[in-house]
Amino acid sequence: MSGGSTRDAVQELDRRLQEKDVQIEALQNQVRELQQSLEHLRCQLPENQGTCAKLP
């Protein structure tokens, strides 16, 4: 019954892809948070005080 095992394999791959999508989304959120933190820190440097927009 190679048809059944092929279907199972495809379902397993689909499940793994969905897990990877969730992991990628979490990593993208972390990257955005890090970028915001870096921008905030950069704007706290004295040499950047005049060039940074005021952050809330």
Write a short abstract of this structure.
The protein is mostly helical and 56 residues long. Helices cover 77% and strands 0% of the residues.
- Number of helices in the DSSP assignment: 1
Unreliable spans: none
Q: What overall geometry do the principal axes of the alpha carbons give?
A: rod-shaped
The profile of the biggest β sheet is: none
What is the mean pLDDT? 89
Q: Could you tell me the strand content as a percent range?
A: under 5%
Distance between the termini: 63 Å
Secondary-structure element series: H
* Secondary-structure content class: mainly alpha
The helical percent reads over 70%
Radius of gyration: 22 Å
Folded structure, characterized:
This protein has 56 residues and is mainly α. It has one domain (2-45). 77% of the residues lie in helices and 0% in strands. The chain is built from one helix and no strands.
Summarize this structure as a short list of keywords or feature phrases.
single chain; 1 helix; rod-shaped
